[in-house]
Amino acid sequence: MKTFTRIEVANTMKDTGLVPLFYHEDAEIVSQVVKACYDGGARLFEFTARGAFAHEVFSELRKFCSEHCPEMILGVGSVTDAAAASLYMQMGAQFIVTPVFREDIAIVCNRRKVLWSPGCGTLTEISKAEELGCEIVKLFPGDIYGPSFVKAIKGPCPWTSIMPTGGVEPTEENITAWFHAGVTCVGMGSKLITKELIKNKDFKLLTANVQNAINIIKSIKG
């Protein structure tokens, strides 16, 4: 599987504008979800490592992507400490996403020149993350803050790149509101990869939904 630099990862986030995120304890289901997103045009995927033995699921997913999704940039989210970040980077994670801002995670990721996106909720947190080299900040939970929060931040800090995650919807109205506010990309989880879709194993529908979301983003960017 191809290795991407942190700048290539950041540029892909900016270019595609979408980072799907998902977790399941069954590696086969996760693999099919990733493949469906890949077929829909996604080139980044955040594996949200939230369960017991999640690292084993990620190991299988990494091998699957090497064969079936060679251009997919596979990252790991829900990382809460430096040890976990180091583990997943050793296993091939090409970006790290966290629900909170932690300097210890910044240090280990910067040491390996791996992109990290910390969950921030204040301008002070965002500023500190950028001082530690963060390229794209995760606004979490996104639906609590909303597009107006992003617009307010971009006023005094136009250089800040933001990825809202949590409650972002794959609708034209919602996506448009976020990008018009100035986000760099959006993270989409359960609103895109729904429980019903997983229950029915309707991966073709997921491919279509991902493709539609990406097309909406492209049309907004012009």
Characterize the structure shown:
- The protein is of the alpha/beta class and 222 residues long.
- It is 51% helix and 15% strand.
- The protein is built from 10 helices and 8 strands.
- The protein has helices at 6-16, 27-39, 54-68, 82-90, 103-111, 123-131, 142-154, 172-181, 195-200, 203-221, and strands at residues 18-22, 44-48, 73-77, 95-98, 115-120, 137-139, 162-164, 186-188.
- The chain has a 4-stranded parallel β-sheet.
Give the biggest beta sheet. 4 strands, parallel
How many strands? 8
Rg computed from alpha carbons, rounded to a whole number of angstroms: 16 Å
Taken in chain order, the helices and strands follow as: HEHEHEHEHEHEHEHEHH
What is the chains' assembly state? Answer: single chain
Helix content: 40-55%
How do the strands and helices of this protein lay out in sequence?
Blueprint: H1 6-16, E1 18-22, H2 27-39, E2 44-48, H3 54-68, E3 73-77, H4 82-90, E4 95-98, H5 103-111, E5 115-120, H6 123-131, E6 137-139, H7 142-154, E7 162-164, H8 172-181, E8 186-188, H9 195-200, H10 203-221
Parallel strand pairs: 1-2, 1-8, 2-3, 4-5, 5-6, 6-7
Helix pairs in contact: 2-3, 2-10, 4-5, 7-8, 8-10
Provide a concise account of the structure shown:
With 222 residues, this protein is an alpha/beta fold.
